[in-house]
């Protein structure tokens, strides 16, 4: 190295500029890609979309004919064992989404690809009918839209979720739904009669009441105020509604916990739960990039607190701690939640039991063998 080289100051790579309406600030490589790329500082700072004049990232929808539609799990910390997701990827663009790494299986990025390249399982309703028609099918409640939101923007046109609900309604298949989108109100005509029979319940995720934070954290989900209105609308229709505060992010949203619970209880929610920030696989670097872009003043502080809850690591997948964390801060958060829930009378009723006694087994029509064609008998002579 020459003396001239030593005199050149080293500049850190400038954080990528956020894209309007998107959560991820990069298109980070998936962990299964063979060729690895590395960002290099070339002395230029990436301009914003307004400064560069580049067009906003367009969402692309791809049709997929799935081979199966029900996913089974045996995780002891998840309150359901069967789930159904009509879509892969989610346009809501929540930067913290634990499902982002699933796009790596498609050879795509868990970053911007996850929220702009959406795969619609166009045969989802038919696959559900086929599953319920199996003699081996054991009816139990289905969790709808757990990995990716079943009412994300593309659902307005495709209506896959509505068709799936129609199938479940026809056969009294109980389910629980979770969403951040007010589009769920469109399907009240199906949901309310099922709720009346104890076949359906809903949860609305509200991470913060701060609209400015939500705009970058969950850029294409409904605003916090709109989600509160959705809780009231569903409750007035007779649908049991809970609130999911997920995730709780230290120094970004954790201060909002009590206010979110109070607002949701006032809107009619009867139950509540929370999950602390989870950063599996590629979600960790994506979230760190988001912090550097939107909260550079507290990015290191946030990650230090996250590691305090994860045994010094960005993430710990242990069943016993992955949802709530561990350590002093996790214990304080648990106490705050318990005190607020008790004060507001949430979780006082048995909210999570759905009735499977009404299930109607699917009977598929038996295939009819085609009649043999009439052929004249041939003579040997």
TrEMBL record:
Single GO MF annotation: iron-sulfur cluster binding
InterPro entries: Elp3/MiaA/NifB-like_rSAM (IPR006638), MJ0683-like (IPR040086), rSAM (IPR007197), rSAM_sf (IPR058240)
Domain annotation Radical SAM core: ranges: 76-313
A Pfam family per the record: Radical_SAM
Alphabetical list of SMART domains matching this protein: Elp3
Region named Disordered: 1-24
Keywords: Iron, Iron-sulfur, Metal-binding
Protein name: Radical SAM protein
UniProt source species: Paraburkholderia largidicola
